[in-house]
Amino acid sequence: MTIRIALLAAACALAVTACGGREAPPAQDTTAPATTSTTPAPTPAEPAPPATTTAPPTPAPATPPAASDKPAATVSDCATHIEGTDAMQFNVSSITIPASCKTFTIHLKHTGQMPVAAMGHNVVIAKTADVQGIATDGMAAGAAAHYVKPDDARVVAHSDVIGGGQSTSVTFDPGKLKSGGPYEFFCSFPGHVAMMKGSISVE
Question: Where is the Blue (type 1) copper domain (predicted)?
Answer without folding.
Answer: 77-203
